[in-house]
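The following block was generated as part of the benchmark described in Methods. Ligand: adenosine-5-diphosphoribose.
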Amino acid sequence: MPFEIVRNDITKMKVDAIVNAANRSLLGGGGVDGAIHRAAGPELLAECRALGGCDTGDARITGAGRLPCRYVIHTVGPVWRGGASGEPAALASCYRTSLRLAAEHRCESVAFPLISAGAYGYPRDQALQVAVDTIRAFLQEQELTVYLVIFDRDSFQLGSALYRDIAAFIDDAYAQAHSDSSAEQRRRQLSESAWQRAPLAAPRPAAMPAPQPFSDRSLLDAIGQIDESFSQMLLRKIDELGMTDAACYKRANISRKLFSKIRSDVHYKPSKPTVLAFAIALRLPLPETRDMLQKAGFALSRSNKFDIIVEYFIAHGRYDIFEINEALFAFDQPLLGG
Ligand code: APR
């Protein structure tokens, strides 16, 4: 999964590079800066001293001392002064220059904290938006695995209106799933009692020839009529929509490696988040999403928060996988992609 939001302490991340939200002196501080220097040990500070500081929006790279990664990329975020002093551009530059440094040093994975969202006072939902938008733009051009590491629950804020809307949709779906099951129970009781009263061999209307039971067909011709596989439907839809493979798997937050596996195996068995990631990338309406899930052996459930949140976005025609993953993360659900 090229972009993932995870809850963790960034000093524990086993990636090629972690990014430090430093200050212009690069001589350490509190927050994530302090945590990284404590975990790395004194050699990190010694290396930083030699760098002679760093401007806001820029980034520098050092070794990682005792940390479980190869590099630390030190970047200096803007202090929030209301948003009209170039803060968004400076913050975007922090992510961009850090990603560029990681790519130049042949990193395959990099982990970011939410830069400026702590002591520097950047509103968290806006800091998150800048982070996601800048990382997404970079991943359109480069292959890299990027983690956004959220250290504490309240430093992750989904827009409250969206959060409330999704929570209400979840409640309705749960309520409906419950009423459906009681309606379903009533229907089953009715049909069982009706079945007991009806003649044993009720004739089928001529218009609907009885499906040939498997027992009447040879196994060979039954297998010969096997349905289109998930992989076949995916490739057919990519062609029908005139998309390139790369455009599709990047929009699905799927790695090129995983896509190649799916493309080369007509019977590939994907995970449910992978199927839904492609349904989002292809902007499939709900019926086709259900069809694609069914080909992989899954179904959308109304008693599963993950399914309901994805259904919410499809039902509202919102196919931005990064936005959906922020919502899934906010509700402690697995993310879309693979
Ligand atoms: N792992 C991941 N994220 C963390 C960790 C950690 N161990 N510790 C804190 N964070 C998160 C905070 O919750 C916040 O969301 O990092 C984000 C950035 O907060 P700060 O560390 O305060 O960084 P910032 O807001 O950019 O301010 C930088 O603070 O520590 C000083 O020297 C630093 O002067 C600089 C300023």
